[in-house]
Amino acid sequence: AYEKLWLALALVLIVGFIGTITYGAAGAGIEMIDDEGGTVDPATLDQHPKFGDPGIERTGENSYDVYVVARQFVFEPGTTQPLRVPADSTVTFHVTAADVIHGFEVVGTNANTMAIPGQVSEFTVQFEEPGEYGMLCNEYCGSGHHVMEGKIVVM
Ligand code: CUA
User: Fold this and answer.
1) Partners of 131 in the beta sheet?
2) What does the alpha-carbon distance between residue 104 and residue 150 come to, in Å, rounded to a whole number?
3) Centre of ligand 1 from the C-alpha of residue 8, in Å
4) Scanning 28, 62, 126, 136, which has its CA 20 to 30 A from the CA of 105?
């Protein structure tokens, strides 16, 4: 009889945690969505229709897809030149890594994911006001980890 009680208690806790996470993400006006694409072959990343030449792509009146490749020690796009998005737009990021595990964080927001070779992480961000945001790698990825950063310019 006790097993059932513990099981029920565990379920309540799990549901509670999920609720907290969902509420936390929605509270900041940033929506995290599930990864649907899932996987990508790191060996042929350069020939991939999206990740081969990563960048921004318009998908609707105010919506964009952004494909980001993280590699030691740059974000493409973002590091060499800033990623530019219009204000008042909804941007879905698709993030992968070319070599080792990196992080991808939009500084000052809770938009934050891991960039993993072979996997595509997706999340959606609402950019309302013009301004600048930093991009940051927050997973240790080698000697240049601390300089791995980029910039997003909301125009
Ligand atoms: Cu890339 Cu740390």
Assistant:
1) 154
2) 10
3) 40
4) 62
Gap between the Cα atoms of 143 and 127, Å rounded: 32
Ligand 1 midpoint to CA 20 (Å): 28
Indicate which residue's Cα is closest to atom 1 of ligand 1.
102
137 Cβ inside 6 Å of ligand 1:
yes
Q: Beta strands 83-85 and 149-154: pairing type?
A: parallel
**Cα gap 22→55, rounded to integer Å:** 28
Per-residue pLDDT of the chain (155 residues; tens, 9 = 90+): 777 878 777 777 777 666 555 544 443 444 454 445 588 888 899 999 999 999 999 999 999 999 999 999 999 999 999 999 999 999 999 999 999 999 999 988 888 899 999 999 988 888 888 999 999 999 999 999 999 999 999 99
